[in-house]
Amino acid sequence: MSWHRASRPVITDHWLRSIQALVLVVLVVNIVNAHAPGLQKNPSKKYNGAGTTYNLRNIIIGRCYHYMSLHPGVGDKNCSGIWQELVDAVQRKDPCKITEEDYKHLALMAVQTIPCDKTLLWSRTNDLVHRYTKATENFITLEDTFLGFVFNGLMWCGKTFRPGMNFKCCPAWNECDHNSILSFWKMASAAFARASCGSVNVMLNGSADGDIARKESILRTVEIPTMDPTRVSEVNVWVIDDIQGEDKNSCNSKSLLELQHYIEEHKLKYSCIDNYRPVQALQCAENPNHAACNRCNYQ
Fold first, then answer.
1. CB neighbours of 179 closer than 8 A, spacing ≥ 6?
2. Which of 79, 170, 197, 272 is catalytic?
3. 248 located within any domain
4. What is the CATH number of the domain that holds 141?
5. Banded model confidence at residue 5, pLDDT cuts 50, 70, 90
6. For residues 278 and 136, is the Cβ–Cβ distance under 8 A?
7. Number of domains the chain contains
């Protein structure tokens, strides 16, 4: 029996050139993928805040329609369009590099007229200020506006290298200077302050530790500088002590005098009231037997 050695394939110059070309293509594709944000793997950076609120799209669109039903004067808002503008503002971007400018189209879609003499700003009085506006319906906080109502209490951020939202974690409020949540509320606060006219009121916590209006607060960094002195006649500060707390700040305290100077530097008139009676009356309605609610004790 004779054995025949198997024929070896002949590698021609044409085959060799084809293999070299294929290797070159693979190398180029790998280089492109390594530098393309849309294709690079997510480094899964961990942040200290909660992830995007589940069912965020449905919540935003639902709140949008609900607000329009409660406030027909706000006009016809494109609820699906507002959701899409939020997505476009943050997806495929570093959650710590989102600015107010990224939300400019969303702000334009949510423009709202604020009646004069109705604006009520606040700092460190979140619970009390909203109990007061709910009880009286005479003033409007940011959370009562379209933007505030729709987005209040929600969390969101995008993924740096992929479309969609990050449901695992997002930067906390003070984790970085330009995170998706802080920048949004700066944008919304600026829009609210810019739309305000007539007398603007500010509720501050007279029992809080430290400066009553911190220099890093949105009130100081955004709202006061954004007000138009040709449209805002006066800024009225209400210094409200906690009904169970200490009287640590008053209109004559150092921090309030410094705040007065800051407001007047922006060509805005200033006034201040300690324990504004209507607000204290609300506190006393909830705590009728407290010593501070003796009729002789409040103005």
1. 49, 95, 96, 98, 157, 170, 171, 172, 173
2. 197
3. yes
4. 1.20.82.10
5. very low
6. yes
7. 1
Whether 2 maps to a domain, the answer reads: no
Written as six digits, the tokens of 208 are: 């809080």
Catalytic residue from among 116, 176, 251, 293? 116
Residue 110's domain comprises 48-293
Q: What are phi and psi of 141, to 5 degrees?
A: -95, 170
DSSP character string of 50-74 = E-PPTTHHHHHHHHHHHHHHH-GGG
Q: How many CB atoms lie within 10 A of CB 54?
A: 10
Q: Note the pLDDT tens digit of each residue in 148-199.
A: 999 999 999 999 988 999 999 999 999 999 999 999 999 999 999 999 999 9
DSSP 143: G
Establish whether 169 is a catalytic residue: no
Tokens of 282: 């609300």
Q: Please report, for residues 27, 35, 42, 91, 243, the alpha-carbon distance to residue 32 in angstroms, rounded to integers and kept in the order given.
A: 9, 5, 16, 21, 63
Residue of 152, 147, 150 lying closest to 126 (CA atoms):
152
Q: Does residue 31 lie in a domain region?
A: no
One-letter amino acid for residue 18 of the chain: S
Q: Residue 116 catalytic?
A: yes
64 in any annotated domain: yes
| Position 89 pLDDT exceeds 70 | yes
CA distance 67 to 69: 5
